[in-house]
């Protein structure tokens, strides 16, 4: 059986842009909520000590990852069976918009810490499962010749969308003493109203995806299966893949590690900027906007490189750079914010390309009609070890207290993320890029 990308003879710019608009539309959850605004808000002194709130965030992130690991293969597999990837994506996207807006209820008080973390965790689960269906649509809009560019364009659109929404909420609500509609920082209202904006942004800007893309016609639609049968089929799929292309399994293991490390960079980068380098909420947003410009452009550029030199080389280059830069932040943390501005900005150049190339590496191998299942397995393998980065981040903070005797050792958390990235790099190096088709 040929790959889905090989079977796709061509596509239109309209379909590519409509597909990429989902990344643009859902980016507020990743950029504003998970990374630069809400995560900083929920780990601030209003909710407890920096170490306690940071470790609580790590715990909730770990639990959410376990749910994703359990649900992704079942839901992805059943989307394939029903031929309903786009329909599933639509409902999950609407749910993500609702959860984003619901963060408005989280007031700056310790009693709301776990309310916020639970909503954040549920949103992470919904967003990740939605991403399975979104990734599975890649073979409907790309070909073998342009999959790197298309994937990079999608990631880049997400980053650039993140810039606009960050700047929008910063200048309308957070930076002014009295923002639009009379919003101020009292009772965390500037941050809380920003969450409503995020929900609306997702609802509006994902409309082109659902209006312009259509499900690929399927002639072999079968009924959805239960959880137990889905896991049995998943195990059979893993055995088929192992027989046909063992290095695909090696890749799934390597990507599980390094994607968790990449997620850690996003999840805890802004937290470190605020807690270790003293960035204000406004400075974090400005940094995030600048970082997204760099990340968006570099991801699109590396997408072109992906089609030229292959996704494996893009991944290796990106991970090696991230390891070096992460170590530099740890050792130079006492030099002040300039260290984070330089090293952090350079890190953003390599996170997106590694993520995009990881997606195209797998997309080049998927047979027709198997995208949801394989990307569900991709999400599951990633989430099986998703506890590593948050756990390593939290454990290294605790180790820092023991070693240094300091009260705030948050900067030690970066070493935990570096270890996970390095492990993924070492496992990825021997993986063969040119493989047989997945069975």
Query: What is the succession of H and E elements?
Result: HHHHHHHHHHHHHHHHHH
Span between termini: 8 Å
Helical coverage, percent range? over 70%
Mean pLDDT, rounded to whole units? Answer: 84
Task: Provide the fold topology.
Blueprint: H1 4-7, H2 13-36, H3 38-42, H4 50-82, H5 85-102, H6 113-136, H7 138-141, H8 147-174, H9 189-205, H10 207-212, H11 227-244, H12 246-275, H13 281-309, H14 311-331, H15 337-363, H16 371-384, H17 388-404, H18 413-428
What does this structure look like?
- By secondary structure, the protein is mainly α.
- It has one domain: Growth Hormone, Chain: A, CATH 1.20.1250.20.
- It has 18 helices and no strands.
- The protein has helices at residues 4-7, 13-36, 38-42, 50-82, 85-102, 113-136, 138-141, 147-174, 189-205, 207-212, 227-244, 246-275, 281-309, 311-331, 337-363, 371-384, 388-404, 413-428.
- Helix 2 packs across helix 12 (246-275), helix 4 (50-82) crosses helix 11 (227-244) and helix 11 crosses helix 12 (246-275).
- The longest helix is centred in the first third of the chain and has 33 residues, at 50-82.
- The chain is globular and about 55 Å long.
- 56% of the residues are buried.
For this entry, give a set of tags.
single chain; 439 residues; mainly alpha; Growth Hormone, Chain: A; globular
């Amino acid at each position: 059986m040929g790959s889905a990308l090989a079977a796709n003879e061509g596509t239109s710019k309209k379909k590519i842009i409509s597909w990429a608009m989902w990344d643009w539309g859902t980016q507020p959850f990743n950029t504003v909520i998970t990374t630069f605004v809400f995560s900083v808000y929920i780990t601030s002194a209003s909710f407890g000590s920096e170490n306690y709130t940071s470790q609580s965030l790590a715990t909730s992130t770990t639990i959410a990852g376990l749910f994703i690991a359990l649900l992704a293969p079942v839901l992805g597999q059943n989307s394939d069976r029903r031929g309903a990837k786009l329909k599933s994506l639509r409902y999950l996207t609407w749910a993500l918009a609702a959860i984003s807006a619901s963060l408005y209820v989280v007031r700056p008080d310790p009693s709301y810490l776990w309310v916020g973390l639970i909503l954040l965790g549920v949103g992470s689960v919904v967003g990740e499962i939605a991403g399975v269906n979104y990734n599975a649509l890649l073979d409907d809009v790309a070909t073998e010749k342009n999959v790197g560019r298309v994937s990079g364009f999608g990631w880049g659109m997400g980053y650039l969308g993140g810039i606009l929404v960050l700047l929008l909420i910063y200048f309308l609500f957070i930076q002014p003493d009295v923002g639009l509609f009379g919003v101020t920082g009292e009772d965390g209202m500037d941050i809380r109203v920003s969450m409503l904006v995020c929900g609306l942004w997702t609802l509006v800007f994902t409309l082109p995806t659902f209006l312009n893309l259509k499900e690929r016609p399927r002639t072999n639609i079968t009924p959805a299966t239960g959880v137990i049968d889905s896991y049995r089929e998943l195990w059979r799929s893993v055995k088929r893949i192992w027989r046909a292309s063992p290095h695909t399994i090696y890749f799934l293991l390597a990507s599980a590690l390094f994607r968790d490390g990449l997620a850690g960079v996003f999840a805890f980068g802004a937290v470190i900027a605020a807690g270790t380098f003293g960035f204000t909420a406004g400075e974090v947003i400005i940094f995030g906007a600048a970082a997204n410009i760099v990340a968006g452009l570099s991801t699109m550029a590396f997408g072109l490189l992906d089609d030229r030199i292959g996704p494996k080389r893009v991944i290796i280059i990106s991970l090696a750079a991230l390891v070096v830069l992460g170590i530099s932040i740890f050792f130079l943390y006492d030099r002040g914010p300039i260290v984070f501005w330089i090293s952090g900005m350079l890190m953003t150049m390599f996170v997106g390309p590694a993520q995009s190339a990881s997606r195209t590496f797998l997309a080049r191998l998927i047979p027709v009609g198997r995208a949801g299942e394989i990307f569900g397995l991709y999400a599951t393998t990633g989430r099986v070890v998703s506890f590593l980065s948050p756990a390593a981040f939290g454990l290294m903070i605790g180790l820092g207290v023991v070693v240094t005797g300091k009260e705030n050792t948050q900067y030690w958390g970066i070493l935990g993320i570096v270890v996970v990235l390095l492990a993924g790099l070492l496992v990825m190096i021997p993986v063969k890029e040119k493989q047989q088709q997945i069975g």
